[in-house]
């Protein structure tokens, strides 16, 4: 049972998937369990890499990525808890395979506005896009995908122009190749990008994944991260383990219970002092495909999320959160997210 098998999986635009890619390629220190109530959130608009986007499932017939390991538990314990007071997305696919997309949000406050617009064009094996963000960023992409040596190869050239007082251009090339049971991806800096990143993934047997990921700092000429992962998934149970720099260990378990229930646990141990972080939660899928989720974090913060669909093209998500130690007098959080796919 996939945790979101009936809702929230339709994607006809690339802008949200790429925001998730940008987020996942950063240092995974932000991948700690997050609570629904964030009393320390700064009162400023979020950056483009802070947007909460679901990692889309692997395409049929293709291997998952390094970041899919533990993905079901992450969806259960993270998805829906991090967006702010309001969040809207809209995507429209035109007859000529052009997709127009826009999004906006108020996070962490009603007036902390951030958003963007994008036009995306898909050809047979090539895609191109141009996006503008309210943080005065202009982002362009050119991607190529096709069969090579019995496998699948892809590359994506991404450039970002920061239109501030001093215009700054950044660029990187993401390339990958997979041929079951192996997969490799690299993110190569071209212009003013600080790191070289990449991973290797292998499926030694059915339902199992093993991987290695590295992050290399060009400025310091040294490795910032070595990470190893282990994943197991049999459609009902998911187990994920990641060891970073031989000292930071994180793990997750997702377990389906019958046709409607599931539970998840995510736990992290950081550094030699074994700083422990954990989140535990459950979800229940209603007969109409709607999903009700709840979780509690190690600091006692509690959150509840409800997500559903209105028709075929509208996805809705609501969340509430509070401090478990002071549910009345403590900090509270409430928000709504609407997604329109036309």
What does this structure look like?
- Residues 15-48 are annotated as: Disordered.
- Belongs to the eukaryotic mitochondrial porin family.
- It is found in: Mitochondrion outer membrane.
- One of its GO terms (molecular function) is porin activity.
- Pfam families: Porin_3.
- The protein is mainly beta and 342 residues long.
- The protein has a single domain, classed as Porin (Beta Barrel).
- Helix content is 5%, strand content 55%.
- It contains two helices and 19 strands.
- The chain has helices at residues 15-25, 71-77, and strands at 86-93, 98-106, 113-122, 126-133, 137-148, 151-162, 168-179, 182-191, 195-202, 208-217, 222-233, 237-244, 248-257, 261-270, 275-285, 291-297, 301-310, 314-323, 332-341.
- The chain has a 19-stranded mixed beta barrel.
- Strand 8 and strand 9 form a beta hairpin.
- The model is unreliable at 1-16, 22-27 and 29-54 (pLDDT under 50).
CATH homology-level superfamily: Porin
Shape: globular
**Beta-strand proportion:** over 45%
User: What is the count of structural domains?
Assistant: 1
Distance between the termini: 27 Å
Decide which structural class fits the backbone. Answer: mainly beta
- Characterize the biggest β-sheet: 19 strands, mixed, barrel
CATH class: Mainly Beta
Helix content: under 10%
Q: How many β-strand stretches? A: 19
Radius of gyration: 20 Å
- What string, H for helix and E for strand, traces the elements in order? HHEEEEEEEEEEEEEEEEEEE
Low-pLDDT regions: 1-16, 22-27, 29-54
CATH topology: Porin
What does the average pLDDT come to? 84
Helical stretch count?
A: 2
CATH architecture: Beta Barrel
